[in-house]
Amino acid sequence: MKHIRLRAEIQDDIQIQGKVSSFFDTFSIGKILHRCGVRKRHGYGPRFLIEAIFILPFIGMNLYRGIVINEECTVGKDAVYEILKGTTYNWRRLLLQLGVKLHSFFNRLTDEERESVLIIDDSTYDRSRSKKVELLSRVKDHTTGQFVKGFRMLTICWSDGVSTLPLDFALLSSAKKSNRFCESQKQLDKRCCAYRRRLEATMKSTELLEPMLQRILSAGVQARYLLMDSWFGMPATIALLSKHISVICMVKKTSKVHYGFEGQPLCVKTIYK
User: Fold this and answer.
1) Whether 25 contacts 48, CB under 8 Å
2) What is the rounded distance in angstroms from the CA atom of residue 77 to the CA atom of residue 67?
3) DSSP 256
4) Fewest CB within 10 A of the end CB: N or C in the chain?
5) pLDDT tens-digit profile of 75-100?
6) Which stretches within the chain are classed as H helix?
């Protein structure tokens, strides 16, 4: 029974690998990698390495178990680490260009009456066990209300109510220096992507929303509304983003902010009553 189970697992892994390779061929991911600056220096090509990393979640393994200590893996850990820490590789552009290709594919299958939207949200990236990670900071987890060591992942997705595509992201530290446990220690060229992403990580999330939204819309992604939760639902942010797309969001229950309702400036609680 054990041999049968192992054989079935091997067959499943082979089928998954074939589907991933077919996906990379269909959407020309090798060409997208080249346009985003991810190019071969020596050894394995970038597509081969990215495909080896991409397949890991589908076979239930992380990078350490799937590549670093896996003796059967043909990819060396040094080659994988080298491509992941490349300072000139534009991973943001890679995600957006792939998202645009998938968006056009999904858009042909979506009924015209279905509303497509963009969704802004941030989630906590917990690194409580880390000590010397660059720009590691004290961030608030909004689901638990507690502060943890880690980062915030700001993401903009496209959705038609059935499918969801991540299009842009920013891994954020804290804008307050007192909340950061570690500063950036690497000396980087100020023109490279890695330097700009580190600079961006210490900015407020509201300062990044408009540039992220503009990149997505200028790439050709079509959506009717932008959805946000109350964390971003401040009048200044809503007014700024409404210049580009209609905004639907939950607003905060506060008496300090008033909205025009039937010719009168009223707070949310009064309007609800």
Assistant:
1) no
2) 6
3) S
4) N
5) 888 888 888 888 899 999 999 999 99
6) 2-26, 29-35, 46-54, 63, 77-84, 91-109, 193-201, 205-218, 235-241, 268-272
Q: What is the dihedral of CA 208, 209, 215, 221, to 10 degrees?
A: 160
Question: Could you give the count of Cα atoms lying within 13 Å of 236 in the half-sphere of its Cβ?
Answer: 2
- Tell me how far apart the alpha carbons of residues 92 and 81 are, in angstroms, rounded to a whole number: 18
Q: How would residue 3 be classed by pLDDT, with cut points 50, 70 and 90?
A: very low
- 196-237 pLDDT per residue, tens: 999 999 999 889 999 999 999 999 998 999 999 888 888 889
Q: What does the alpha-carbon distance between residue 30 and residue 46 come to, in Å, rounded to a whole number? A: 8
| Tokens representing residue 105 in the block | 């594919």
Q: How far is CA 200 from the centre of its chain?
A: 14
Return the domain boundaries, the chain.
Answer: 2-84, 91-272
| 136, 181 Cβ separation under 8 angstroms | yes
Token pair recorded at residue 143:
């689901």
Residue type, 15: Q
What does the alpha-carbon distance between residue 90 and residue 106 come to, in Å, rounded to a whole number?
25
Considering Cα of 128, then 131, then 132, then 135, what sign does the dihedral take? positive
Structure tokens at 259: 């909205």
Are the C-beta atoms of 101 and 27 separated by less than 8 Å?
Answer: yes
Look at strands 225-228 and 246-249 and give their pairing.
parallel
Helix, strand, or coil (residue 101) = helix
